[in-house]
Amino acid sequence: MNGLIMFLLFILFLFGATGIFTMVRYLVRLKRKKIKLRSCSKRLLITVFSLLIIATLMSIGSLYCLADGYILEDAPYSFTIEKAIEHYGDFGNYKLVERIDPEFSSQPIVIIQHDKDLTVCTLKNRQMLIGLKKYWVNGGFTLVDGEERFGYLIDENQVFGGAKKVFPNVWFGIIYPENRDKIRINGKVPNFHEIRFDGTDYVFWYIEKNGEEASLKFE
């Protein structure tokens, strides 16, 4: 769908640019023939300048939409989730593992793989002027450290989500499947999402923030 709209915008830009070229060429031809605009009929002048204005708006408007018009923003928004993930971290080799859409959060959660690491991030999206969506993978946390650079593979006592700008509405963590029925966050059962990564089964849990710090217990 995005590709079709982009194609139509490009065609619209070509029509606009062609219209501008045609109208300007017509006015130049009148000048070369030494025909004064005053001697032309009022209806003709209105038609020519109206078409010129329309063509200019078509060309500039479609070009603005193609460029998205957000040239002052630093965030590298992309037209596809896959491309946004490739741009995450500037390494270009991240892969999408799972996408989760919590009912209580406007930002989807994406779990991505980079080498032997499993990382969770939020997926920000922005509605463009013409209805298209662009995506940006926000910063996140390492869930599984495949190389154990931080001295652990998985820490089931860890509750993530303290960075409000990245995870404004969600507390989350990762556990092994055998502890799925035991975990409680502030006395509540969280939502679960099963993940298989690098030959091992995990369970990603998440729950809505309720204004207090998250307390994790196994029951």
Brief sketch in words of this structure:
The protein has three helices and nine strands; from the N terminus they run αααβββββββββ. It has helices at residues 2-32, 42-67, 81-87; strands at residues 95-100, 109-114, 117-127, 133-145, 170-175, 183-185, 191-197, 200-208, 216-218. The chain is elongated.
Report on the structure:
- The protein has 219 residues and is of the alpha+beta class.
- It folds into two domains: 2-67; 81-218, no CATH class.
- 29% of the residues lie in helices and 29% in strands.
- The chain has helices spanning 2-32, 42-67, 81-87, and strands at residues 95-100, 109-114, 117-127, 133-145, 170-175, 183-185, 191-197, 200-208, 216-218.
- Strands 1-2-3-4 form a four-stranded antiparallel sheet, covered by helices on one side. Strands 5-8-7 form a three-stranded antiparallel sheet, with no helix packed on it.
- It starts with a helix and ends with a strand.
What is the overall pLDDT average? 78
In DSSP terms, counting alpha (H) and pi (I) runs of 4 or more, how many helices? 3
Q: Order of strands in the sheet with the most strands? A: 1-2-3-4
Order of helices and strands: HHHEEEEEEEEE
Assembly type of the shown chains? single chain
Strand content: 25-35%
Per DSSP E runs of 2 or more residues, the count of β-strands stands at 9
**Rg, Å, rounded:** 27 Å
Tell me roughly what share of residues is in helical segments. 25-40%
Supply the number of structural domains: 2
Uncertain stretches? none
In angstroms, what separates the terminal alpha carbons? 48 Å
Outline: elongated
Major β-sheet profile? 4 strands, antiparallel
Q: Structural class given helices, strands, pairing?
A: alpha+beta
